Amino acid sequence: MDRVYLNGRFVSREHACVPVTDRGLLFGDSVYEVIPAYGGVPFRLAQHLQRLERSLAAIRLDNPLSRSAWEAVIGELCGDGGGEDRSIYVQVTRGAYPTRNHRIPAEVTPTVIAFSSPIPQRDPRIAQKGIAVITTPDIRWHRCDIKATTLLANILAQAEAVEKGADDAIFVRDGLATEGTASNLFIVAENRLITPPKGDQLLPGITRDLVLELAKEAGVPYRETPITVDSLAQATEVWLTSSTREIAPVVRLDGRTVGDGRPGPLWRRMDRLFQQAKERLRQAARKRDETNE
Ligand SMILES: Cc1ncc(COP(=O)(O)O)c(C=O)c1O
């Protein structure tokens, strides 16, 4: 993180301070976005800004910036790594006020934060060996479709996974597997891709939508339908998707082997298509830079 956008200005990291009375800190009264950028270009920016708009509306907070102002801020931060892959973190809180009070103030001055960090290179062992996950009861609230910063249940589920020697956890509510602690869920059953439908039990993931788009283009049959714990346990492939994790193949579920214990054939196909989509973005950026030179 080289510099931080804070309330209208770019400041150095050590000068990026928010008051201790900020409602984001006191109540988790805030929403966020994480936008990957490849070759200095944000990936699926319009979709991320649309989801931010939706999250803000859901918590009754006006969007503090116009679409073009967000694009300008995020565009600036994308350039910080000299074209390396980065993720842009954006957070809007309901702001800081003199007294700690749950009531939403009549006059709201939000706190707006954005910064970028390098996206770590994907560990090649994941493509070869996959990841291990556990299932855990979903103790979150009933608006998981809002990208809110209140992530304590996600953090505890992730900690439980690590404690049990796994990489991550999948939430289960009312007998249905909904999503990962920071990712959406896909399974393969009878050669068909399945992901739970959007609703208040899961985040409408941008990567999820992209995977479905790529599946459609490639003629891979898919369905958006609830995933029972039984169908999860019987799936031949299980994947977790997110902007920073991309498509992660799960090879162990609650200590049992998924499929033949290796990343599956449909995962390899979808991962290839996903990498090609990223590469197209990088190439477009290179072409744009060459034209501007
Ligand atoms: C709970 C949860 N579900 C799903 C996702 C995946 O969303 P996206 O693909 O937009 O990164 C995330 C991403 O952080 C998440 O936190």
Question: Would you kindly provide a written description of the structure presented here, covering whatever features stand out?
Answer:
This protein is an alpha+beta fold and 293 residues long. It has two domains: 116 residues, D-amino Acid Aminotransferase, Chain A, domain 1 (2-Layer Sandwich), CATH 3.30.470.10; 155 residues, D-amino Acid Aminotransferase, Chain A, domain 2. It has eight helices and 16 strands. It is globular, with a radius of gyration of 20 Å. It starts with a strand and ends with a helix. Bound molecules: pyridoxal-5'-phosphate. The site of pyridoxal-5'-phosphate has 13 residues, from helix 6 and strand 14.
Q: How many strands, which pairing sense, and closed or not: the largest β-sheet?
A: 10 strands, mixed
**CATH homologous superfamily placement of the largest domain:** D-amino Acid Aminotransferase, subunit A, domain 2
Low-confidence segments = none
- Total strands: the figure is 16
Overall 3D form: globular
> Level of helix content?
25-40%
List the total number of helices. 8
Report Rg: 20 Å
Please tell me the CATH architecture of the largest domain by its name.
Answer: Alpha-Beta Barrel
| Order of helix and strand elements from N to C terminus | EEHEEHHEEHEHEEEEHEEHEEEH
Question: How does the helix and strand content classify structurally?
Answer: alpha+beta
